[in-house]
Amino acid sequence: MLDGIFEVIYVIGFVTGSVVRKLYVRGYDRTKFTDDRKNWLDKLLLVVVSLGFIAAPLVYLLTGWLDFADYELPMWAGWVGTVVFAGALLLLWRSHVDLGRNWSPMMEIREEHSLVTKGVYKYIRHPMYSAHFLWAIAQVLLLHNWIAGSAFLITSVPLYLFRIPVEERMMLDRFGEEYKLYINRSGRMFPRLWG
């Protein structure tokens, strides 16, 4: 059960992130796609990721079934996890704000889709994935359990390895030279430190 401060912080962060996403899912327009590259593998990977960031933490927090895999971290690690989670939530929110109506939960482009290169997108081409990666790191530091803590990190890596190249190809096909120039001045999931 919720017996630790860091578990409570995780739940608060999870609810906050869910509210942010819900606000943008509600405004998502499911019409007029000119390019749709979702497939069975993408859908399967999304289900697997949901097990890592929803199911495993809920099972851990609400039952004792995963207690055999608990570990201990020093108190400072939990506070680092809190800061990382706050950064992840801020980046998730800012990514949605900057992307606006161009956001889609699937690999799709609408007729009126535009290339967003301002805000956090000036520095990172896939800041939502960066936010999820930070969330996954925070989950390791806040949920002290080998299964629940690491589940999001482990399940999200295959999704990113599959999705990012497909999305970048789709953007290159749509925006051509403009996207090539954008690639040269921005980082994929983290800001470029040089160049």
Please describe what this structure looks like.
- The structure is a single chain.
- This protein starts with a helix and ends in a 10-residue tail after the last helix.
- The radius of gyration is 18 Å and the shape is globular.
- It has a two-stranded antiparallel ribbon.
- 26% of the residues are buried.
- The chain contains six helices and two strands.
- It is mainly α.
- It has a single domain, classed as Up-down Bundle (Four Helix Bundle (Hemerythrin (Met), subunit A)), CATH 1.20.120.
- It is 64% helix and 4% strand.
Count of separate structural domains = 1
- Extract low-pLDDT stretches: none
| Number of DSSP strand runs | 2
CATH architecture: Up-down Bundle
CATH topology: Four Helix Bundle (Hemerythrin (Met), subunit A)
What is the approximate shape? globular
Task: Determine Rg (CA atoms, Å).
Answer: 18 Å
Give the averaged pLDDT, no decimals.
92
Global structural class: mainly alpha
Give the percentage of residues in beta strands.
under 5%
Q: End-to-end distance, in Å? A: 48 Å
The topology string of helices and strands comes to HEHHEHHH
Return the CATH class: Mainly Alpha
Measured as a percent range, the helix fraction is 55-70%
What is the count of DSSP helices, taking H or I runs of 4+ residues? Answer: 6
Across the major sheet, the strand order is 1-2
Biggest sheet details = 2 strands, antiparallel
